[in-house]
User: Fold these one by one.
Assistant:
Number 1:
Amino acid sequence: METNSRPVVVKRMPERVNARTAREFWNDVQPFVVADRPQLVFDLSPVVQLDAAGVDMLLRCMAEVHKRDGDLKLAAPSEPAWVVLELTRTERLFEIYETAMDAVRSFSGFLPNAMRQQLLHKRPPTSTAA
Amino acid sequence: MSALDIRALVLVNTEPSFKYDPLPLAAPAALYDVAGQSPLLRLVAHLRRCGVSPVTAVIAAERSFFPPKSSWPSHFECRSSLDSNFWQTAEATFDEVAQSGASLVLLIRLGAYAEVEFEKMAQAHAERHCRVSQAFCADQALEIFCVTASRRNDAASLFRSRFQECRNQCPEFIHTGYMNPLADARDLRQLGIDILTLQTKTRPCGNEVRPGVWIAPDVGIDPTARVIAPAFIGTSARVGAGAVVTRCTAIEHGARVDCGTVVENSTVLASAYVGAGLDLAHSVVGMGRIANLRRNTTVEVADHNLIGHSPARGLRKLLRLTEEFLSSLSAKLGRETTPETPAPLPALESAPPAPDVASAAPGTPAGDIKDGEMAGVRTHGDQ
């Protein structure tokens, strides 16, 4: 999906996120993570099992994305995912949205765009009356 | 009342339910330790205080959930049963109890944990000349009946209807004291809170080392860990460095909380392991599962770095005994071989690595070495 600035990549996480699947997922998302100012959303709705390796992978992704001045947001975590994120105190590190769409929209509400919108509203209408 | 021989039959099983339970337990809640003792054994102790003895329990659960025999009070017996013939076993046990000379038999299904004044209930039953009377708590029928032992048919109708109905009308005995439905993990947690906040007559099983902090024997708490009242740490439990245990948390026997973990308003069930650096709140943890009460969900955690199950007490004891046996054996063998070793050094006997020292410093005058630790370090005379 494309917002009014850069594309937002939405990735659906696997059902079971253990050491093996986390590595596979990392290989999948790595091209997007290493892009310039990446905007990523991970959809956690299918997750039924998330272990420490999965949490580690999420943190790794976030660190890489932040290094490149981008952002990673989580969407629709399932109950098992929520419980593990809370247990490992990582839920406070991510922006978490109820749906992937909300997460994507949140990128377009980014401050410079918001300011631009405000400026557009404040700009006096160009009068054609001469 | 003293002339009456009152005995009790306690039934523990999980009744099949069509209602979805988001916080299920692997065994009946009455068998899990809460603040050091299971509701079953707490009930047995309460019955004994009320003058009801002996007590027989019929349990339909895995053997591993049974209370260890060492913890059984006197005049208490546990019988195992399959789920399929649970009520038949209960009926047969009732017949045995009735035939052994009881005047009244209290039938209690755990079920709800209620601190009923059984003495008063039996007295009311005898005064009213009832066949069967039932305890009620705030209009809610409890599965607690007082049955005249000779009325076997009334008892049989109770067992055959699974305590749902009696062939005669049961007079009510109103219970106004503590009651917990013990239906799921939430109730188990609530019972822990109520015991630690002294809402119940029953108390945590440990020494109250500070107001509101109960510690059982053989506990290992790191000096840097903080235990904030009210809290309970059970027998042989371990709390790691920098961990925080707070807000009515109960760490049951043999459980382990690793370094830096915060456990808040939670029950860590017996032999459970909670990994390092975690934040456990509003949960019941054990058997590799977390029942999160705030989210009203139970999650299986496959990763043993997060939530695990430490070896059972028996296994740990076996390991310790094996270790002791091996060390005694090696000591014995060492003693047997001493005549073969050249010139024993009397001053070095207390030093643990004595053979090394003897071999490393053959020229050292043995009488000069007094300190065992130093003896282990010194390899040359001038050190």
Number 2:
Amino acid sequence: MFSYLIRRLLVMIPTLLVISVLVFVIIQLPEGDYLSSHIAELQAQGEKVSQDEIAFLRQQYGLDRSQVEQYLVWLAGMLQGDFGYSFEYNLPVSEVVGDRLFLSFILSFATIVFTWVVAFPIGVYSATHQYSWADHGLTLIGFLGLATPNFLFALVLLYVANVVFGTSIGGLMDPQYVDAPMSWGKLLSVLEHLWIPVVVIGTSGTAGMIRRLRANLLDELQKQYVVTARAKGLPPIRLLVKYPLRMALNPFIADIGNLLPQVISGAAIVSVVLSLPTTGPMLLSALQSQDMYLAGSFLMFLSLLTVIGMFLSDLALAALDPRIRLEGGTTR
Amino acid sequence: MRLPARVLCVPAALLATLLGGASAAWAAGEAPELAARVAAGELPPLAQRLPASPRVVTMAQPGRYGGELRLLMGRAKDVRMMTVYGYTRLIGYNSDLELVPDLAEAVEVVGEREFTIRLRAGHRWSDGAPFTSEDFRYWWQDVAGNSELSPFGPPSQLLVDGEPPRVEFPDALTVRYTWSRPNPFFLTALAATHPLYIYAPAHYLEPAHARYADREALDATARAVGQRDWASLHANLFSPYKNLNPQLPALDPWLVSTPAPSTRFVFERNPYFHRVDAQGRQLPYIDRVVLSIADGKLIPAKTGAGESDLQARHLSFSDFTFLKAAEKRTGNPVHLWRTTKGAHLALFPNLNVTDPVWRKLLRDVRFRRALSLAVDRREINQVIYYGLAVEGNNSVMRECPLYEPRFRNAWARYAPKEANALFDALGLTTRDARDIRLLPDGRPLEIIVETAGEDTEQSDVLELIESSWREVGVKLFTKPLQREVFRNRIFSGATVMSIWGGLENGLPTPDMSPHELAPTSQQQLQWPKWGQHFETSGSVGEAPDMQAAERLISLNEQWRTARGREQRADIWREMLEIHSQQVFSIGIVSGVPQPVVVNARLRNVPPDGIYNWEPGAHFGIYHPDTFWFDAQ
């Protein structure tokens, strides 16, 4: 078990390294760099930028160095905790990011909890009452949530919330609470706004979860030991919970690895549409203006969260399934 | 330039008011929150905060103090919009687009070469320090004249043929700029929406300047906050247009009090603001302005939900029906202001396209005229703009003194038969199986119009043009791209035709520069390479090789050296005539109304105004500092 943990931790390092190279390469792929989009914007506003100025700015931003050099500077900085400088905001990245990472984390966490809370009872019910009206009905709703585009669903819920409940449009809280210290009012306002993105992102994840849980549980319920237990007079609920459910939970927990990236990227789109103060909108605008360090650092943060999340899910799986603990590998 | 007589009367009128014993009214003429601060000893009394002769702004309804104005903006950078809305300039445009001194008490012009700016006695910065010619000296000698802060020299609007002005500071309240040749750009640059700043708070910035403080210590301080050296620290501190530094002393009506980054910026009133109303009460009326940053696409929805008190930015005409329906729910009326762009949308045939066949065809004026005649502008106006827009060329508006009906209407009527005749005369007579004409080299006459992909309105208009062009045998394809790619393709000559807004200033006076009509900038989508050639003084780009374009450039030069309004007007008219006959851009509609949503309780906002960036500063020329909240 211990060696398993150590191995998993050590694998994280090359993973993050490869991610950092990929992130850097992909951000630099489009023609030009931050400077060219910045100058294009200046010129569009009617300001004249001479060739000398461009060369000067290029040197000032450090964009005249080679790609490899820029990457190494960034990597070295990150390892020391200095995430670089945002060209667009003219501030160090850590100051620009601020609360957004924390709010992103809360959003993702709430979404995953929502997904579990919704998918679990529905999956169990669907499996135990296979082919009933409820089974079909709930599955249909799940698939509707999966099929509807996230942004459309978000806008519809936004409008409904505003007209029916009077919730202010967009954002994670009412405007007057934005800079105010935490209070009950602020918390309530956050919850009032949070349910929309959570429901929107969560529903696309629940459909998959429900079907997986249902399928696995059905497989288990067909097995011999269930028939034996039933014949021996075990109460049905206890029978269900103690044996088949624990087997069926395996993929449920292993799927966090799949769920996390889906939630984080789904959250980015929904955040942009709903104008939430999370990483999504800022990441999008940083990528569009090729603000290298801000975009790169964001992506590294998110990758780190994902990698750690998957590590925790593997840990949970190892705790849940003795076969993994004893054999030291994962089963999927 | 002659200043309106009433400007010279202002000091006299105020003197009369003072002698009339209005000092009692002045003592009460400040906001209650400022009066409280005066009583607590935090601020000097009003008489010491206002200049000896403040600017008196007359308005329809004198207002009451109080209230908080909520605005919505699309990006964090739009904090600079408060500098635009505040519109505090040395000399600025009034609502009739005449130049009136604002921060300056008077501006004397001699032969357009010598400009004397007289400041107001007792005028102070927002932190109480005096605003004097020392601030102009600091900017001229230590910012524009410092090789580390301005490695490329003073701004181009201060150079006449590369020659900088002779700057004199006769006394604490006077600054004089003199050139050997006329500089017609100086005053318009000072009054511009994105102005030329020729002053800086010397008392605040000197400690951050290497000439007055220890360079090593400054560099160390700069590196400690993540800046490269003292010069970039200074540049960060002094960014008056961008509103990024809450500690920077300013002269605007509201001062930013929230540091970046944030999604909600609060602007507090400036206790030393220099304008008063007719009763001597210090402006602004509104205590606070709150700017919330939200995604641009959500702003119409948020405005419809009543989250903004004064909104026009990010609202377009296509949101009008939604906002009108929302009027019932929120009670906030929607006004329609006039936009004054030469054309809301115009097609720009790229005369610098690299493909030789297209190049030859686009340069033939008959081809451009035929394309223009084949556009059914009335249909577009009716379908998309409910008939509220003005059909016609990309030219000046009807209210402009230079307007002639032929500028707007030449080649702009819908005449498919004439278009067909022109195409036939060009030799494009063979058609393929789809009834589309063929180019001389056998390719079908398919024009790919590229858009910046940001607006469905453009795609809708192109859809309608496509059907009317098909009648004359021209096929249109729309290609949405991302803005930078869109621009770069036009600049390189890969694009055949693009669609964008027309002339930025559709209400010019003869004293405004006609540079938009001549190939002077790479940003002009019909001749980017000629424009680039002009911008870089010949080092990059191509020289114009079309007689009409060369004439436009020479006329633009002549305007700079012209004497007298009449001569300038003649030059303008000739340039407009060339444009209307040569059809360098195919204008579609202009004067598309701009929805402006105003809180039901907000007064002094004109129900019908001009919504334009330059000149106009959106709300700037209507002085938001005179807006006030009524009780109900």
